[in-house]
Amino acid sequence: MSITIPEPPTSPLSRLRWALADGWTVTLRGLTHWTREPGTVISAMLFPVMMVLMFGYFLGGAMQVPGGGDYREFLIPGMFVMTMVFGMGETVAAVAADKNRGVTSRFRSLPMAPSAVLVGRCVTDMLTSVLGLAVLFAVGLLMGWDAHGTAGQTAGAVGLLLLLRFALTWVGIYLGLLMKGPEGITMVQTLEFPVGFLTSAFVAPATMPGWLGTLAEWNPLSSTVAATRELFANPGWGGDSWIAQHATLMAVVWPAVLFAVFFPLAVNRYGNLTN
């Protein structure tokens, strides 16, 4: 019995349909892992919940918001951003695991669209992020946080959070394709903490030493933190620097720059993958 391998489509429209179908197949593979390994998904969602409870209740009483306001309302938008950052480590681990186990090589040997593996990974991680964000939204509401802006402003804030996650997903995919062992993955996941804490997520950069506060202000994550606070109409720190005054603009520009850099790097690395 012979097996006939279908020829790849040639027209642009049929190639697009082929890529979308294969990408969705890989996405379903990722979603299937949710049902087979629910503990991994649950633990990933519980970690930011524990972080927000710790800072909101254990440390929040000692925190002062510049200009006044409730610290928990100051904190929650920052934790939304941190959730997007923590998701990047999960992307790195998942991509590296597939590569190091030979799964990626088997995908590359199949008659499927070359973009399917990367697109499927991206869609899976974005869906995971939406679920994690929804959980943290619920926790925030239970803690007394609220989005005081209009429905459009709230939707815009969520859009900025997911835009950041989308850009960080491609950073994670590229790094995952580079990793050859667990040491590299651990290093990336460890670096999430100093990069995430060196922002305006937990305290105002004005309270830091001058040079450190400047680094925190120019951290791309701080722009999304400040922009979402503004759109949610939550207390902010009100910096007077250029980067602080143009937070919403930069919350779009920074992810666009990250995507422009790491998307072609990820595609090129995947195309030249040998081990």
UniProtKB/TrEMBL annotation:
PANTHER family: NODULATION PROTEIN J. This is Transport permease protein. Belongs to the ABC-2 integral membrane protein family. InterPro entries: ABC2_TM, ABC2_TM_bact-type, ABC_2_transport, Nod_factor_ABC_transporter. It is found in: Cell membrane; Membrane. The chain crosses the membrane at residues 39-59, 74-97, 118-145, 157-179, 191-212, 243-267. Its main location: membrane. It is a multi-pass membrane protein. Keywords: Antibiotic resistance, Cell membrane, Membrane, Transmembrane, Transmembrane helix, Transport.
